[in-house]
Write a structure and sequence with these properties.
The structure is a homotetramer of 273-residue chains.
Chain A (H helix, E strand, L loop, with lengths): L3 E19 L4 E13 L3 H6 L8 H14 L5 H15 L5 E15 L2 E16 L2 E15 L24 E11 L6 H18 L5 H15 L3 E10 L2 E3 L13 E4 L4 E9 L1
Antiparallel strand pairs in A: 1-2, 2-3, 3-4, 4-5, 5-6, 6-7, 7-10, 8-9
Helix pairs in contact in A: 2-3, 4-5
């Protein structure tokens, strides 16, 4: 046994929890999928199977429910902070807690009924005994525009066959994650605002490249929200390929497309102040 | 070679097509995943590899695009009828054409931008030289209510452990498929109406069982739309299990739930006049 | 309330169960995903919410485990028969029980260790008070051959662009379901034999069309197993498209392919005696 | 426009390529899903939409096929190095190329026929003008042992309900990625050896915790292969929960389990010399 541990991760993933908050005239409903990881002196478990310092991942799961019973799930960021604080308070040897929350978006249909949307809200909270770092985000926001997107003037080499276009479909599934400089803010309102800003820029932007759209979206978020230090946006270019109708004796007036999932362009940037 | 062919199926599945219809002030955008199957005297292909009667499935794919270029994709039912008619007109030996269309719902954000929803619209068209049968439907409409759902008074046997409840979460993913008695109707308006009726009944219904909710939803659709002969509704009971917090020293005031995908109740009915 | 119930389905899906059978020198391990549906006079549940005849689907789930504790999971067919018999014996008003079992294939690595394969074994058992019908099958058996597959001599129309080929890749995911004329047979040995026969025919067959390969596979199974009355085989044609390298200044000597999942050919037949 | 670019990523993901190598007596067949990303001075594309330095991701896709036509796909690592070298040679402004390859495992059934397995081989190659870094790995290797796994002696707190066990099922889906100190080695033989070592240790190890099994697996790989500098292994603990049969009036002699996908334990380590 001469090998060393360079790094370790241990925790519980895909813990699902939902909570109803009952008001006279309406119910609030939240649903999360949570992952929790603990940092601390757990090396001996790897090296010798000594579990004496190990909080079982089953206990982490139970704790997700126990804290949910004692605090609101809204906003996810504050729930996560309470969850992390519990582990730091309970176990003196735990040095850090990481929590990843995927919130399944339920849109209200009436005071007691909800429809699930496709997009997800994200919250990532990292706590140590020195402080807390909070990130929030959006995932799987599938949007598409049928105009104001071109791609031309690019570099050609001997394997380039792509035709330049001044008018293509731009379809993507937005993933954006941003960090907060403090926790003294309205997480829900900021989330809603960031989502709206990104959709508005996506819609309005005269895109010369997906890259340019990413920057424009991120820049707008940073302009609007001084408490956000940086934002990472990923826009897979989910191609809608114009179908070659000439071989069928027909003309494609830039109207008929074949949607594809693979391959796709992978375009990402982290934008900061 | 003594075995016989009892039945055969051949066609192309998962053909993806999208179309922009450009108007001055807005674009219309539709996206389908199409399956096409042909019926006819194709037995020799199976028995001897004689392909002389076989329309290649690649040609079916091309035809999906060719017809899309020559007609609107809206509504899916009329597009499918034109697609089927093409095969019947072109190939005298083809006796029938089946088309299944899954329409990916794109909700308008602005005149040229769309967000993809989670639910799908369905159209099933079966054409022969004698006529056409049209079915429409909705799939993956994920809804949930936090009240007005109970389950009690059921039969107990020695393996029953379920507790009766007068107030549970009812979460499901609606799939509904109905048939039309004629093609002389507004498919889009009827689809929107059926969707609204089913959601309204789901919301308002005081549910004693998922089965009862299915019947109420189907009955309401049939009452409202005389041109619909029958409707099949499937409501998987996607359980939100109350978490046992007593073992954690806490009380669950019917607030904290564990969402699950498996197992789930499978509840379905075909409702007719 | 004037609508009628044409048909109803109710049951529990995706019940997962595994069992270890411990022998001195080795363990046997089986894992199933089970669905159970009951037939009987359950209409009032739909019509009025009267649950008095309803065996809760939660009880069905419990029963899957209870019967697993009292009998072997091997073979799946016999387990299913015992499960169905339990419901018929326990509930006089139940007229039929349908069970669908997907068996996750675990291949032995040593006496106590297993690796999961990609293919699945299927068992479908339908019981009434008059008798039992048993089907068995294989699913998700992904195979591919790099020779002995051609496709030519097919019908051309104005939308045909496919090139004839005397040597293409044939890749597919086999699904086959067959019925047994009796239950007096060795289900495990027959399953293994059918699997081997189908793979052997797939391998050896000089295929002029996927359709022809299906018939050859099914015919061989029927020849070998008189207790099988019919077999339904589905072979999606998962295309490996030759890449056009000419536009890149290169030649494709039928060597470089783009694997695709969509669209795919959908080829199926039910073969009988 | 005051925001800055902290980092950028651009490339093509999910490019699928397969190649047949034809020998007299057998064919070799390989299938990859490839991602390519380029590093270089691409900031202006984000900032101003200036595409003049941008190699289109469509060209990257074409290049995957072009290089496949000119070299073997085996081993993936050498193919990736040639692919990366092409971009560095062709485009003077490109400073780095990252390639991720997922190889779909096809097991030979006969000289010309293959069955797809569930596990995947991984290759990650990062090239700059200063050198190349190669990582290899295995993913989705789903294994399970029915003995020699316990979990006891762990820390209890007020939310701990897990029972200690001296004999549980250990089921997991192995993901392991290791780095090579040089490229002067037999990648295929090393891959096969690492796979065998990890399975052998998983099988033989008397596991006191999943963590301990990870370390043992990684340590064994490092002992056997001096050219491997470090290895990261992830073993999700895919729980097989003993079913409570007492409430059904039965005894569970550690035989009947409910397999679950969520939640699962997430156990990982990076092991180094």
């Amino acid at each position: 046994m001469t090998s060393k541990l360079k790094s370790i991760e241990y925790g519980k993933a895909r813990v699902r929890v939902a909570k109803i908050e009952r008001h006279e005239d309406r119910h609030e409903f939240r649903e999360f999928t949570v992952a929790v990881r603990l940092a601390g002196p757990f090396e001996n478990c790897y090296l010798t199977g000594d579990n004496s310092m190990v909080v079982p991942t089953d206990t982490m799961k139970n704790t997700v429910y126990a804290i949910a019973a004692q605090t609101s799930l809204a906003p996810a960021e504050r729930y996560a902070i309470k969850l992390g604080q519990h582990f730091l308070d309970t176990h003196a040897h735990v040095t850090g807690v990481d929590m990843d929350i995927v919130e399944h978006r339920w849109d209200r249909l009436d005071p007691f009924t909800f429809e699930q949307g496709q997009s997800r809200r994200l919250a990532f909270v990292q706590m140590t005994r020195d402080g807390v770092a909070v990130q929030a985000g959006i995932d799987n926001l599938v949007v598409l525009k049928t105009t104001k997107s071109s791609f031309a003037g690019y570099l050609k080499d001997k394997y380039t066959t792509l035709k330049e276009t001044s008018d293509r479909i731009l379809g993507t599934s937005v993933r954006a994650v941003w960090n907060y400089d403090s926790t003294d803010l309205d997480f829900e309102a900021t989330m809603a605002s960031c989502r709206k800003i990104m959709i508005d820029v996506f819609t309005a932007h005269d895109s010369l490249a997906v890259q340019q759209t990413i920057y424009a979206m991120g820049d707008a978020v940073l302009q609007a929200h001084p408490q956000i230090g940086e934002i990472r946006i990923t826009l897979p270019n989910k191609h809608y390929l114009p179908v070659n109708l000439e071989v069928l004796g027909l003309e494609n007036k830039n109207e008929i497309f074949m949607p594809t999932d693979e391959p796709h362009g992978l375009i990402e940037a982290c934008i900061t102040r």
